[in-house]
Amino acid sequence: MTKVEELSVLEGFLKTKALKHSRKREEILDVFLNVDRHLTADELYRLAKKKDPSIGFATVYRTLKLLSESGLAAELKFDDGVTRYEHMYAHKHHDHLVCTGCGRMVEVVDPAIEKLQERLFRKHAFHPQRHRMELYGICVRCKRR
Amino acid sequence: MTKVEELSVLEGFLKTKALKHSRKREEILDVFLNVDRHLTADELYRLAKKKDPSIGFATVYRTLKLLSESGLAAELKFDDGVTRYEHMYAHKHHDHLVCTGCGRMVEVVDPAIEKLQERLFRKHAFHPQRHRMELYGICVRCKRR
DNA sequence: TAGTATTTTGATAACGATTATCAATTTCAT
DNA sequence: ATGAAATTGATAATCGTTATCAAAATACTA
Q1: Above 60 in pLDDT, residue A1?
Q2: Which residues in B have their CB inside 8 Å of a CB on A?
């Protein structure tokens, strides 16, 4: 149930920052790792609260920030202005294909696009850091309706 | 000074929605069109206020929404959570290359990437609507420092 | 294991961007 | 000019998120 490897990543990160291990942080990480979809801070808060009602949402926000900094979570910002988080540890880079009808999301990677993006960076003499690509459309299911 | 073509686009849009022409809306459009960079609602508010101090920021927000709906402006949402607006009328589609050091922004288009994006839509049986691509990096000037 | 310095915590207030409310003003077809 | 309807600015409200702060938890040390 508990993912030991991810937990040790967090522990290691805390150590380098002279921060302390805490029960709450471990609980929140555990809940996060056991859900396999993008979560908003609020969704994670509700789930964590079920396991431990004493958890406050400020702690969830703070922990999500730690998870992002330690490389365990990635922040996703779509057009609706709500930040979502997804698993990042040992997950490959990918972009998103989003259905504007039902909200369904597909993770996509196109190596050819990635290469061309690198070329764009070089062409404008930028040192690449990261990118973000979202494709919005209507999926088959929604088109039928 | 005043862009008649864009103004008539707005007028036309208002007509279809049974909305009224107003002096404030025209003033705001005029200020917007005479600035050639991405603007936040607040920036546009300050500029409009110089010309006509009686303009309130609620009206600027409301007008920006109308401009977006009528196709004169495009909303840009980057990672900082502030919505920016750019000219849209008779402007070609483009993506953005952003320097995380100084905030400089370059408009880019890569036809090859556009084609591959279409292919990705088809591959997952999505009907394409729009996409968003932002490349974040460090520009030469910032790298030197 | 008790003492203690430091960090973490939850509740709450504060924040920044945006939107809703509402009475007063403007628009426009008559 | 009249009057119905839309628009306006000031302000309050909203939403997601972050800051504050006293109390609790943690991890050293002796």
Answers
A1: no
A2: 77, 79, 81, 97, 99-100, 106, 108, 110, 112-113, 116-117, 119-121, 124-140, 143
